[in-house]
Amino acid sequence: MTSPQGFLGFWETTGSAKTFTHPLDPELLDAYVPRGARVLDYGCGYGRLTAELAGLGYREVRGVDVSAALIARGRREHPGLDLMRWAGFPLPFGAGSFDAALLFAVLTCVPGDAEQTAITGELGRLVRPGGVLYLSDVPLQGDALNQERYARFAERYGTYGVFETPDGGVFRHHAPERLRALVRAAGFSVVAERTGRVGTLDGRTAERLQLIARREGPAAPGAGGGTAPASG
């Protein structure tokens, strides 16, 4: 759930005790990611979704996060999971090592353009051609609280949508086209979208945008992959 550079202190201290609430959509996952897929949960935090994937029957799942505190917590809470702390890029995996990658509420924790591009670009390297990126994140919100803090912090961070929380976190909400553009630039084509409301770290709710994006290029012969359409 954290950025590979900067703002890491929050996730090694206050943030490492948070209860993450951004949920997996099992129906959407099942439509595009078969149980036998090699799955990377990037920005896995304490392994909440990694554990959920394992519980759903995904046999080859690996979680990676840059926060030592979050990975340590994950190893305590889920001792059977394959969780790894890695603080930069490239990750220690070969190109095309995974059939699918999850990027759940990660970009919202990474305020910088360059860092976001680095994350999605690395996932473009790691997901095989024909494989899937399942991204879920928080778009710009229309309520008064968020609109006020977007405006208040825009000059400080140079980006509308970045804001601070009273406990020291720095987060970013995105124009939906920003999220789509990031995955396209990394070599993916968006094949499905779904919206809904989710809980936030501060106990509120927010709109979310889920994207299913397929890695461009020819799939390996015999490679698996769901193709069923998802509802909007």
TrEMBL record:
<dbReference type="InterPro" id="IPR029063">
    <property type="entry name" value="SAM-dependent_MTases_sf"/>
</dbReference>
<dbReference type="GO" id="GO:0008168">
    <property type="term" value="F:methyltransferase activity"/>
</dbReference>
<keyword id="KW-0808">Transferase</keyword>
<dbReference type="GO" id="GO:0032259">
    <property type="term" value="P:methylation"/>
</dbReference>
<protein>
    <submittedName>
        <fullName>Methyltransferase type 11</fullName>
    </submittedName>
</protein>
<keyword id="KW-0949">S-adenosyl-L-methionine</keyword>
<keyword id="KW-0489">Methyltransferase</keyword>
<dbReference type="Pfam" id="PF13489">
    <property type="entry name" value="Methyltransf_23"/>
</dbReference>
